[in-house]
Amino acid sequence: MTEVIKLGTVLRGIQAGKSFQTAEVLARPDELGVLKVSAVTWSDFQPDEAKALVGSYEPEETHKVKSGDLLISRANTKEFVGAVVLVEQDYPLRLLSDKTLRLVLDESRVSKEYLLFALRSTSARKHIEHFATGTSDSMRNISQGVIESIPITLPDLKTQRRIASRLKAQLAEIESSFLAAHAQLLDVQALHAAILRDAFKEVIPAALPKSRGVPPSGWRWHELCEIAKLESGHTPSRLRPDWWGGDVSWVSLTEIRGLDGKWVEETHLRTNEAGIANSSARILPRGTVCFSRTASVGFVTIMAKPMATSQDFANWVCGDELDPEFLMYALIRSRSELRAVATGATHKTIYMPELESFQICAPERSEQERIVVALKKRLGTREVMRSALQHQYQEIKRMPPRVLAKAFEF
Q1: H-run or E-run covering 177
Q2: What is the DSSP secondary structure assignment for residue 20, as one 8-state letter?
Q3: 159: which of 3, 15, 113, 248 lies 20 to 30 Å off by Cα?
């Protein structure tokens, strides 16, 4: 017979830790530590997530974490408040805090393994999230009364153990698939850098003079400002709304991450002729390569039509010797090294003297164009792979809740 009960009816008690005085450092494995809320999430118990105690303390036995403890977090974010873990070994040096509770069960009525999964079911999560209190999503709380009132579907013990055993096997298989998909995704993400390294023959193609490498056969170093005109950007006054919302696209840091490595057709932020006329902003031609030089240093886009940029960009209008896409990919290939040039305590910036000294390693224009065609083809194939793997990865992430939901449909 299956019934829906309140969790409190199968509890012998709820044991809490205490509010210890702790240091703002993690406890070593060989010293007493008080569990952080991050020790109890949706993964296995994390004993390393514990703060070191301040001063000496002889812990009470009920405060020690032990094998078989079913722990629940009474305070955390909306996603993790009420999360549960089952501890699989003794941890005499790990102590329950006042935010981590131990559920003491009537094991003649309920299996710990079953309850672990039941408390992760959709109905239990809805109840917890509905009754959690707190004005900020950064920390929600549930009382012992809310915990005791969580609805639980309870079949007989034999059925509970069978369900728990099946769920454990299914979730272990999903976890294995998740880890494999994650590894594949990391591999295909790393492939992007490998493709760029290969296209530029292992040389860092955009560099300061002191950082130049040996050019590949048929390539040579150029002063970038000799084969491309360096232009800065500007921002029309924000105090003049009549200078905004026109028909002139204006590249800014707010959009550059999404535009990285692409041609920009238009932007969300737009100015107009009056904004351009009454500021130092300039409308630059199609093919201008825009390199973010402040805050989000190193992101690159190319103008697909005439537009302007903020002062956060260094803009290169390429001459006949330099293909704009070749320059864009060269800057992306050199991103880590160019970011190291940026200075500043709060917001890193590459200043104009450094930008004016940039050098570019490149072959003849026709070879640049051939490299770009081959590079785009390889990056396109890689993006198809990445997109497919990302979809697979997200689908696997959605499987545990689906499996739990199906398991508790009686």
Answers
A1: helix 157-199
A2: -
A3: 15
What would the pLDDT profile of 87-146 be if each residue is shown by its tens digit?
999 999 999 999 999 999 999 999 999 999 999 998 899 999 999 998 766 789 999 999
Dihedral of alpha carbons 316, 319, 321, 326, sign: positive
Whether the Cβ atoms of residue 72 and residue 65 lie closer than 8 Å to each other: no
Task: Decide whether 3-154 matches 206-375 in CATH topology.
Answer: yes
How far lies 43's CA from each of 40, 47, 345, in Å?
Answer: 8, 12, 37
Nearest-angstrom CA–CA distance, 123 and 408:
9
**CA-wise closest residue to 10 among 119, 141, 164:** 119
Residue 246 main-chain phi, psi, to 5 deg: -90, -145
- Name the residue ranges covered by the structural domains of the chain: 3-154, 206-375
- The Cα–Cα gap between 278 and 239 comes to 12
State which amino acid sits at residue 200.
F
Is 151:123 a contact under the CB 8 Å cutoff?
yes
Question: Is 81 in contact with 142 (CB distance < 8 Å)?
Answer: yes
Which option is the CATH number for 3-154: 3.30.1360.180, 3.40.640.10, 3.90.220.20, 3.40.30.10? 3.90.220.20
Burial class (CB in 10 A: 0-12, 13-18, 19+), 1: exposed
What top-level class would CATH report for the domain 206-375? alpha beta
Q: Mutual orientation of helices 324-333 and 157-199 as an angle, nearest 10°?
A: 120
Reported as a single tens digit per residue, the pLDDT across 183-241 is 999 999 999 999 999 999 999 999 999 999 999 999 999 999 999 999 999 999 999 99
Q: Taking the model in full, what pTM does it have?
A: 0.75
Residue given tokens 């081959």 in the structure block: 374
